[in-house]
């Protein structure tokens, strides 16, 4: 590396403080406490107020929901601990810089744009969720499950205001994101527990069998929804965050961890947020389904709306409004932060602050359209399916590359800008398994793992021939 390049990297670190193009130095490593709050805040979040009720609309049974969620979330925690945290603490690069070393600048630019946009759409759903709470004092009309477009000027103004605040917090960097989550997560967790308890009282649950019978043996799905089984729940909950763990996006987070065991902190967020919170939110919706308003929707053959703000407000009042606002906030913050890092890798001369503001602007625009939140189960499955296989390239190179005889960080060492082995491995895996999903109407989460494994194996095989061809 030339002296000019070294000086440039020093300038970048000093101005941004986010170490986008170098390993995080030991002086910046953080203990498990920083991650505990962030993951609890991110996963006990606004989306939980939507996902829990959506499980009820799929007609899931009690066993499939309770046991399926427990095992699926366990697999997610193991993925974070033994894949993402392991590799993140080994190299300490952002996902985008790590991929650039493997894929080359041109190929990773395409990935970064796709990744950043998908994260913006996901963050937009969080902003939508917070808006349903802020809109209650203004008597705002809430979006329905079938809504795609903004339904009022009030909705637009509220979303824009929330998006602006969240974007500024995310743009201030990892320390601010983690600090915000640490402050807010206890309030959110308390709110979910309170919502669950109040809902159990309203449903007159006096025993475990009463609780079990809320779902019982399951039912027919609501109009426009598909029937969920045990395998739907297990695989969906495992891959709900596929882009973050097996897709390696959280390399950008775990590069700050002092050791791989910090990966276990994800369990705090997952079992509080993706277990207790999902079930509590489902109970909120079960209470609402007994209301005359919901019965009118069902009588007309429509699914009653899943608006988190009113559901929480009806259970615990103003505290519910506050909880939904903060829950959307704590998930949107790290999601926009990740999106900003993706865009920063595309336009490295722009500061991290401003690319994160750009990401927040895109997320805010997405938040204006309720479809991202109302179709969250489908969207989360799709974005995980698209992004996860690229993570397999990093995993398979790290664990099997040397044994298979391929050179690690091939693009960096050879100067190539477009690693065709990565491109073809991802494209073939995506095309084959997405076609299977469409042609045979297979639930997309069933195919995420096969696509991930396929991409990793194809990467090793194609790299074996590609690297030999380029070097000759």
What does this structure look like?
It is built from 21 helices and no strands. The protein has helices at residues 3-16, 32-43, 46-57, 62-91, 95-103, 105-134, 153-171, 174-202, 208-212, 230-239, 251-254, 266-289, 292-299, 308-316, 318-346, 352-367, 371-374, 376-404, 410-414, 420-440, 445-471.
Question: Can you lay out the helices and strands and say which pair or pack?
Answer:
Elements: H1 3-16, H2 32-43, H3 46-57, H4 62-91, H5 95-103, H6 105-134, H7 153-171, H8 174-202, H9 208-212, H10 230-239, H11 251-254, H12 266-289, H13 292-299, H14 308-316, H15 318-346, H16 352-367, H17 371-374, H18 376-404, H19 410-414, H20 420-440, H21 445-471
What would the keywords be for this entry?
about 475 residues; Hydantoin permease; membrane; disordered N terminus; Purine-cytosine permease; CodB; 21 helices; about 0% strand; transmembrane; transmembrane helix
Number of E-state strands: 0
* Count of separate structural domains: 1
Average of per-residue pLDDT values: 84
The CATH class label is: Mainly Alpha
Distance between the termini: 25 Å
Count of DSSP-assigned helices:
21
CATH architecture: Orthogonal Bundle
The percent of residues in helical segments reads over 70%
Low-pLDDT ranges: 1-16
What is the H level of CATH, i.e. the homologous superfamily?
A: Hydantoin permease
Shape assignment: globular
* N-to-C series of helices and strands: HHHHHHHHHHHHHHHHHHHHH
The largest sheet is: none
CATH fold naming: Hydantoin permease
What is the structural class? Answer: mainly alpha
Strand portion, in percent? under 5%
């Amino acid at each position: 590396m030339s002296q000019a390049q070294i000086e440039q990297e020093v300038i970048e670190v000093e101005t941004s403080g986010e170490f986008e193009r170098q390993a995080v130095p030991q002086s910046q490593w953080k203990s498990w406490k920083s991650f505990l709050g962030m993951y609890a805040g991110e996963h006990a979040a606004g989306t939980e107020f939507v996902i829990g009720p959506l499980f009820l609309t799929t007609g899931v049974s009690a066993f499939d929901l309770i046991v399926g969620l427990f095992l699926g979330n366990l697999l997610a925690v193991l993925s974070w601990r033994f894949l993402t945290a392991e590799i993140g603490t080994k190299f300490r690069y952002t996902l985008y810089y790590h991929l650039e070393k493997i894929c080359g600048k041109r190929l990773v630019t395409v990935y970064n744009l796709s990744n950043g946009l998908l994260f913006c759409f996901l963050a937009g759903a969080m902003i939508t969720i917070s808006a349903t709470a802020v809109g209650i004092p203004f008597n705002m009309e809430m979006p329905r499950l079938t809504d795609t477009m903004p339904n009022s000027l009030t909705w637009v103004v509220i979303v824009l205001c929330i998006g602006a605040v969240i974007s500024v917090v995310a743009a201030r960097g990892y320390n601010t994101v983690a600090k915000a989550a640490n402050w807010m997560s206890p309030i959110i967790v308390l709110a979910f527990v309170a919502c669950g308890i109040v809902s159990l009282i309203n449903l007159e649950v006096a025993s475990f069998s009463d609780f079990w019978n809320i779902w019982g043996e399951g039912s027919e799905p609501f109009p426009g929804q598909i029937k969920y089984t045990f395998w739907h729940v297990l695989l969906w909950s495992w891959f709900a965050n596929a882009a973050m763990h097996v897709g390696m996006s959280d390399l950008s987070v775990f590069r700050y961890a002092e050791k791989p065991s910090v990966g276990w902190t994800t369990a705090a967020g997952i079992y509080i947020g993706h277990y207790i919170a999902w079930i509590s939110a489902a109970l909120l919706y079960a209470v609402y389904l007994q209301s005359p308003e919901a019965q009118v929707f069902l009588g007309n053959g429509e699914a009653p709306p899943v608006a988190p703000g009113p559901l929480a407000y009806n259970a615990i009042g103003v505290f519910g409004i506050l909880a939904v606002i903060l829950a959307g906030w704590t998930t949107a913050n790290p999601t926009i932060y990740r999106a900003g890092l993706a865009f920063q890798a595309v336009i490295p001369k722009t500061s991290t602050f401003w690319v994160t503001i750009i990401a927040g602007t895109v997320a805010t625009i997405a938040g204006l359209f309720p479809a991202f939140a109302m179709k969250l189960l489908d969207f989360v499955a799709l974005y995980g399916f698209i992004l996860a296989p690229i993570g397999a390239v990093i995993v398979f190179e790290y664990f099997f590359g040397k044994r298979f005889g391929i050179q690690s960080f091939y693009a960096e060492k050879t100067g190539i800008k477009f690693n065709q082995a990565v491109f073809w491995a991802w494209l073939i895996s995506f095309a084959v398994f997405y076609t299977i999903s469409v042609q045979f109407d297979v639930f997309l989460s069933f195919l995420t793992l096969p696509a991930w494994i396929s991409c990793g194996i194809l990467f090793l095989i194609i790299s074996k021939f590609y690297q030999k061809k380029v070097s000759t």
